[in-house]
Predict the 3D structure of the following.
Amino acid sequence: MLIAQITDVHIGFDPDAKPEELNRTRFRATLDRLFAQPNPVDMLLVTGDITDRGDRESFARTAEMLSQCPFPVKALVGNHDTREELLHAFPDTATDENGFVQSAFVQEGLLVVMLDTLEPGRHGGAFCEKRRDWLAATLAKHEGTPAVIFMHHPPIVSGIEWMDPDPSEQWIANLASALEGRSDQVLAIHCGHLHRQIVGQFCGIPVSVTPSVAPLVSMDLRAISSDKPDSRPLITTEPPTYALHRWDGTSLVSHYERVSDWEVIANYGPHLQPMIREMEREKGTG
Ligand SMILES: [Fe+2]
């Protein structure tokens, strides 16, 4: 099973740009590559900041572009989104008993959990006691089933100071309490929000951040001061990247591909057949 992930599309950042806003161009390029790449995708998860302002028009534009997908699409909220408009644009989206946009399902023996980390008006993450209890109950209900979690906000400190949470924030403690003792069951946590590819750990579980569709955040780990704008680069035009998470019934691995700025320099023809044969022979499969 292949779960594709894209994140932080931010449609509506500059809706009046001519001929088209940059984020929409980048979104189209990402979908084009996702459709053209050779691996059959089973579902696509869009892990929040689907829009920049959470407005109906931007959600409608995004949903219209996603309607071309020949596979199911599931949407998560980010801090720039609104639950109401996400549910309006993606009416099949499941919510929990408290109205949070979080849900879980088992496919091919993998429990896929999608969390809601939105608190309206806040940039950073949120995960209240109600959401914590839902996650704890969901993992307990599926005890013994390997799980993967998708959520917008990474619960880790990356070193990109202006984007990071304070590790003592209550929502991080709430998430940790739901995940305590679950590092055998939860194979990975996949996030967005940081607009860069970043890997870390939380409660003994690997955490990965998929880069954004919208422009990236500069890889600058120096301290930053709100008192002193120092002209450092903050946002870059590094190309969008999507993820393909591969579950084979036993293990979960993640692949990342940039959608542009690269070329094929070798194709598999007869000249490369000896190399492939040799590699098969080494493994005893040839
Ligand atoms: Fe975000």
The mean pLDDT is 98. The first strand starts at residue 2 and ends at 6. Residues 22-36 form the longest helix (15 residues).
